[in-house]
Amino acid sequence: MKTLSQTTRDRLTAPTTTRATCWRVTRADGLTLGFTDHDRPVAFDGLTYRPDLGFETTAATQEPDLAAGSAEVSGILASQSLTEADLAAGLWDGAEVEVFTVDWQDPSARVLMRRAVIGEVRREGQAFRAELRGLAHLFDQPQGRVFSHLCDADLGDARCRVDLDAGGFRPTATLAAGSTRDTLRLEGVAGPEADWFTGGRVEVTPDAGPAVVREIVSDRREGSERVVTLLGPLPQVPEPAWEIRLVAGCDKRFATCREKFANAPNFQGFPHMPGADFVLAYPSRGDARNDGGRLID
User: Fold this and answer.
1) Rounded-to-integer distance, Cα 69 and Cα 281, Å
2) What residues contact 258, with CB distance under 8 A and at least 6 apart?
3) How far apart are CA 187 and CA 172, in angstroms?
């Protein structure tokens, strides 16, 4: 644990203080931004913490037994560094946050109060509210392999090894009339039957800005068009000039891996793992299966 200098102690514990709270936010794409609740910019460690979002925070909680503590920050969508499109695209999800108490007259006198990651982000008109999860929440997440009948790889990743583009599992589509933020009517996707993309995703790339990815809830054909329903709405109604790609759905079952993707050798689950029925089973006189031979061909 880092020991505070006497100067820092004196400045932060004086009867009259000039303290401010600063938040350093590092997104998954590497962009680092600074915000403060002071009315003027505060700079230290090569980063300027700006007051233009009106950042506020709730009280932070600390839970026993390594349970995840929580807090919230809120602000206004009034800065070029934090836009509604970025929030909707999920660029702030999982961002790392460092919270400092700083003497704004002498920023060298500061204390790192906590580290957190951004969880759920909610929009309320032109404002936003973000959940700050304590690092203890990482203990609630599975680490390493999971023994399951289902595959624990993501379609197309290094463990799955399916080539989405070469296999035709990531086709480009053309937007048709009648599309909305949560339902896309698409043309130019030939071949696959209905539900081919259910459980997959759609990648929508505007003329300017990052791609937006949404999970596909349902997929059906209507004449020459394919109608795709999304789990969450897009930030805005898509335009015909935008690039749209569909990614086939995978339900993680061995039969799907073998028959839909011809990828059985790379299946990352355990389809023949004994289940509860096997554990509770017992020998039965006259059962022809109890011959010591293999049960699965």
Assistant:
1) 44
2) 264, 267
3) 9
